[in-house]
Amino acid sequence: MRPLSRLVLTVVTFSLIGGMATPAMSHDLPSVGPEVETPALFDDEAGHNANGDDPAIWLHPSQSGKSVVITTAKEGGLFVYDLDGRQLQHFPAPAAPGPDDEPGRFNNVDVTYGFGGRDLAVVSDRGRDILRIYAISGGRLTDVTDPAAPFVFNATQQEVNEAQTAYGLTTWKDSTGTYALVSRRHKTSVGLVKLLQGPGGTVGYQLVRTLDLPASFTLPNGQTWTPCMEPGELAQVEGMVVDQERDVLYAAQEDVGIWRMRADLTGTPVLMDKVREYGVPGSYDPETEECTPGADPGYGGRHLSADAEGLTIYYREDGKGYLMASSQGDGTFAVYRREGSNAYLKQFRIGQDDGIDGVENSDGSAVLNVPMGDFDEGLFVAHDGANTPAVPDRENTNFKFTGWGDIAEELDLDVDTDGWNPRD
């Protein structure tokens, strides 16, 4: 059943900002080498259909060197690694509830602290349209999902099988409770979901309200532009992050750009940056299942090549800091000011170094300013969608760990280990 308290916001005013400039070539950008990588994941039967996607960092309350990185791998489930990239735990995704139903498929993960005295990892299961919730103690995870937890966006299993399910995810806390912001696959919707104490120490949730971002846009020439998609699909959101000190949600609409809005999904969303492909017409070819682009009218942004993907925030003590976004189309990361109108600052890539390959096609990333083990100036973790060495006929992914101090030095950014951290 859908919660009775659900409120759908169907009329919203949207603001667009941003300008045009010639983008820098990605090969001219600073490159920072990773220090650690996790084992390869293979998206085939032999690899249990494990396809890396999104990381989150859990900070140990007293021994930061024992912090862990929690990652999703779609049908492969959830993997937990130590700071040396060694696997500590693995949770398979749930089986399909019926022979004609979709199996579990873990898409995004985030960590929240102090819910009923426990730290939690919250996961979007896009195969089942549910949230899976894990309690974290000493770096070990335990599944505490309420068995009676409802579908996030759907009312029936048949609707779930049509694939318009929970997709991207981030967490947020305020004085009224602990929430997940969850996007809907193949839709422009983002939902606000409140976590609830369940029976026997389990954790459930309830959808509070949803907001629909635009599916079409009026261009400066007066024409209407709709991103080219497969029939029946709209421009979805995946990468999201909340500025926990400002209660601001940033949401990456993959073929459009990055939106800034109130975390409670009220108010007026602002499109703070656009992908370069914004405004480019396209026609879908059902034979190739690809979109053929038309002439670029020149209305796109400067810094992001579609898809706009993983978002994460580096906090400084002075209330400033950095918002970082994965520019998946060119394998780079864009850095914006955290404060004000989120002015663009820098661009970089995670490149090959000391026997570890770089990052390409990144879906998700996470950064934390707290010293952790050998990462004494903070840690940046990124999904690598094209791990090497390549194995013929096997899709190969993993996660790369990079010291924030190395990124900051290369880009002339700040290191501030006294800034806000999730245990403050």
UniProtKB/TrEMBL annotation:
Residues making up the signal peptide according to the UniProt record: 1-26
Gene3D superfamilies in alphabetical order: TolB, C-terminal domain
Segments forming domain BPP: 22-411
Sorted UniProt keywords: Signal
Domain of life: Bacteria
InterPro entries, A to Z: 6-blade_b-propeller_TolB-like, B-propeller_Phytase
Protein name as it appears in the record: Phytase
Source lineage: Bacteria, Bacillati, Actinomycetota, Actinomycetes, Streptosporangiales
